[in-house]
Write a structure and sequence with these properties.
The structure is a homodimer of 324-residue chains. By secondary structure, chain A is α+β, with helices and mostly antiparallel strands. Chain A has 2 domains: 2-145, PurM-like, N-terminal domain (60s Ribosomal Protein L30, Chain: A, 2-Layer Sandwich), CATH 3.30.1330.10; 160-312, Phosphoribosyl-aminoimidazole Synthetase, Chain A, domain 2 (Alpha-Beta Complex). Chain A is 30% helix and 28% strand. Chain A is built from 9 helices and 14 strands. Chain A has helices at residues 2-5, 7-17, 65-81, 103-118, 169-179, 189-195, 201-209, 223-234, 253-262, and strands at residues 26-28, 35-37, 43-53, 86-96, 122-130, 135-145, 160-164, 215-219, 237-241, 268-273, 284-285, 288-297, 302-306, 309-312. In chain A, the strands form 3 sheets. In chain A, strands 7, 8, 9, 10, 11, 12, 13 and 14 form an 8-stranded mixed β-sheet that branches. Chain A has a 4-stranded mixed β-sheet with strand order 3-6-4-5. In chain A, strand 4, helix 4 and strand 5 form a beta-alpha-beta unit. In chain A, helix 3 runs parallel beside helix 4, helix 3 (65-81) runs parallel beside helix 7 (201-209) and helix 5 crosses helix 6. The radius of gyration of chain A is 20 Å and the shape is globular. The first copy, chain A, starts with a helix and ends in a 12-residue tail after the last strand. Strand 3 of chain A pairs antiparallel with strand 2 of chain B, so a sheet runs across the interface.
């Protein structure tokens, strides 16, 4: 048993579970002080990291370990998608109670391996330690052709605001999960989106490569929290039309708009498009709906219109430093 | 007050404290979904990350916040030094109780800023959240000329083993810190080394550029834990001479050898040099002592000799998954 819990043995196990036959740009991964990686010529490197903590971002009693493994990588990759980049490799920092190094870890690594393969993002290295709670921090390294990254700061008055997919679905899934006993199962689209989100990597790359998005970000904390960030970075305001929001048909009609405005964890893309390029944005991209939800305004305030009434949009999304 | 604890405000404050006028290779840091960074041509990228957790790696009541800030970056940079690379930028993942966003955070950022400037490693981005305990995860990105990284795997039988600096000093500092009341102060070399370690970046680069080290790593968990890792990676064994270890004169003679063998947190470099190049290793490099402590052997066992007695070296360094 001692050997089983030993840090060297744990690292070897993670390595074995996530081994990948491709060598390509990763000269050396794991087993040394750092990973060695080669960037492509003519590309910029995107660096991003994300906490995924028991009690804050997932519940040990409710979230199946393979969902924890999938989601910790998927949400970090979503930041790469939001800049129009391609994910390349990741570092996994994992702190774990000794009691979870058996079956829990096995399933966690299974979910992580599936995400790693699906998202084409290889394990490069990491750090492990012991804690009473499960703590995860994932760093993802991505690439984007020089000068083509989509930033938050390029939105201009008159631009049209789009979102991908459906909003509020993941938050609805979280509500359903809280009501279930034991580990949640992905029995409908809302639970599936909460447990196994799919970052919009291909869409993000297409928008960036075709220079369609003047500004872009991913929706992780909810539209009402994230849109003000995009507007602040661009020095603009916005008007969004609540009736246009692609809300989830799984919610009661009375809840659907609120979920779409404030629900977190969707990992959809929010992007602005200049009016002259608007016709180049299809209604669907690879099966993912793209919806016009409003416009960018010169005046630095953010309002939403609902039943012909215009009112300021109050942030009510996820902010760990503010009571909800 | 609400605004003060708000995540956006916290990120802005970290950004302000660690602002750097240089633009250089970081096209875009902070304030977007990810950082954009340009690698140098002809170089490989080194990626590494390190946990630094309250209760495991530091004590909130004992470690001054500016030491926490310094050390969380310094120890991650040490992994870049261990491969012969130059640190370039870092991502800070910080989880904090709301009660520490005042003076504690200010001093933490002060220590981090000093480390960032001294080690020439700029803040590129990160993630913040709220937790009851202080959780830190630092990812460092470094560079090394293509093909010149020093790995753990190149040691060959007959190579001479060297270490930089003094061994066991940081662990002695930790013991002294545990006995003090309130925040520790760096009143001697042992406490200084424990609180404000200096990664051997210049030495690591010099050894790698001159192809002097056949294998290299940094000593973070103690010689008796780390040397077996270097030997395992190289498929070799080693004999070390206890009398040769550069132990600390600050410890009682009875403790000094044990501290040098098993004490963690020194962040010195352990490296192997082929006999034909041994004469090129000076006794001191930029004021840091370099000491021959033994040799690499073909047989895959690790022994230490003490008073003409040879015995197996038992790992008694830091391993979070093993009771000490």
């Amino acid at each position: 048993m001692r050997e089983k819990h030993d840090e060297n043995a744990l690292v070897k196990r993670i390595e074995r579970e996530l081994r990948c036959s491709q060598r390509d740009s990763l000269t050396l991964a794991l087993g040394d002080d750092g990973a060695l990686w080669n960037a492509k010529q003519g590309h910029e490197i995107i660096l991003t990291c994300d906490w995924f903590l028991e009690g804050s971002h997932f519940l040990r009693a409710k979230h199946p370990p393979d969902s924890v493994g999938w989601k910790c990588l998927a949400r970090a990759v979503s930041d790469i998608a939001a800049m129009g980049g391609a994910p390349r490799c990741f570092l996994l920092s994992l702190a774990l109670p000794s009691t979870l190094t058996g079956e829990w870890l096995q399933q966690f690594l299974g979910g992580l391996r599936r995400a790693s393969r699906t998202l084409r993002c290889r394990l490069a290295g990491g750090d492990t330690t012991r804690q009473e709670k499960v703590l995860i921090c994932v760093t993802v390294v991505g690439e984007v052709r020089k000068g083509s990254a989509a930033l938050r700061s390029g939105a201009r008055p008159g631009d049209i605001l789009f979102v991908s997919g459906t909003l509020g679905e993941a938050d609805l899934g979280l509500r359903q999960l809280r009501k279930q006993r034991g580990f949640a199962r992905a029995t409908n689209a809302a639970l599936r989106k909460h447990l196994y989100p799919r970052p919009r990597v291909v869409l993000g790359q297409w928008l960036a490569q075709n220079r369609l998005a003047t500004a872009m970000m991913d929706l992780s904390d909810g539209l009402s929290t994230d849109l003000p960030r995009l507007c602040a970075a661009s020095g603009v305001g916005a008007t969004i039309c609540v009736a246009s929001l692609p809300s989830t048909p799984l919610a009661k009609p009375a809840d659907a708009a609120n979920l779409a405005l404030h629900g977190g964890d969707d990992y959809e893309l929010l992007f602005a498009v200049s009016p002259s390029k608007r016709h180049r944005v299809p209604r669907q991209f690879h099966g993912v709906k793209l919806t016009d939800i409003g416009t960018i305004a010169a005046e630095r305030k953010i309002v939403h219109t609902e039943k012909e009434k215009t009112s300021p949009l109050i942030s009510r999304g996820w902010d760990p430093f503010r009571a909800r």
